[in-house]
Design goal:
With about 375 residues, the protein is of the alpha+beta class. The protein is built from 8 helices and 16 strands. Strand 13 and strand 14 form a beta hairpin.
Amino acid sequence: MIFTGVVWFGGSAWWESTRIWQPVDMPVSLSVGHLRTAQFKINVESTYSIGIAVEQDPDDEETRCLLGIEKCAGNPPALRASWSVSRAGRVTVAGMSDAEQGTFWAGNGSGRVLGTFHSDSGRYILELSVLQDGSRLNVRRPYLVIFESGGENERTFDALWRAFLALLLCFPVGISVLIRSGIVRRGEKQDAFLKTWPLSQAGPQPPIPGVARPLSGDEEIRHYRETRPWSTWPFSRTSWYGLIGTNVYLVILIPVWLLSPRPMVPRGLVVHLVKPEIAAPSTPGIQPLRVRIARVDVHSPPKLYLDSRLVAWEDFEPLLQKELSQRPPNWPVYVEGSPDMEWGVAVQAIDTIRGLQAQVVLLTPPRKTAAAANR
């Protein structure tokens, strides 16, 4: 198991390290002209993309407009080129950058794809002709890249990850079994030594302390193994139960923990709670907004009040927005609901208030004590 895990992961890592995922990465000038790359090697059959990237902030709007990543009315693209890929002096594929091929991330910048081609293993040469003066992009240090875009890189990484998981599972199990077998073999060697060199002389033997009857040779060896000092040392013996439990944990629980998605904990609605026994002093001027949800009886739907005014649910949001527009920003809205109604009704009102970017203060009603309920 140790050999399998090490060879699997080591072979996958070695094979991945020998793959050329980006055969060309060189600085270029985007002035009008023609350039020819040196011969480059491709050793993975896949689809490859040809692109121009710049070492600039990808959020720079001017750069994105000049590259042609975005269409800007006042800033037309400055990049237009034709390209061809040849092998052994013969052009295998050619194209233009007029068609939209997409964008990509390269290092610390963004780039535009000029074209794509499918290729198998071999040596190739790229010729690029800049048809439009894009020297304005030269200050942003443009460079030409050819990178694998057919998904082989992702599949190779997935295979490497599976090999690492196999190593993570096989290596500890193999080590534990190896340690266990070493302990068993050590005990077998000690038994063979005791049988070859007995501890007692031939003839009648004095009784062993704690043993009622004389012991035979095998019984004496077994008694010695069970009563020797190191048999009581901590971790002197390995338990098969612990070994089985560890292997089950490694083989089953670790993959489940790695592959299972982590649950997202909902945040809910953020509200402020005010103790009912604390009464805020009334002050002249702008008064706070109070939303009250009350139920007349158990059979009628809850009614909505805004500052003691009965409002319909469909008119609640525009009226509340009108009131909030007459108050300072982040003005609190106090919400009070009857304790005998469903909580979803209060949540609907709170959600509407939060949608208007207002703070919500939930007024909790006082609880009735047992004595008050009996009265």
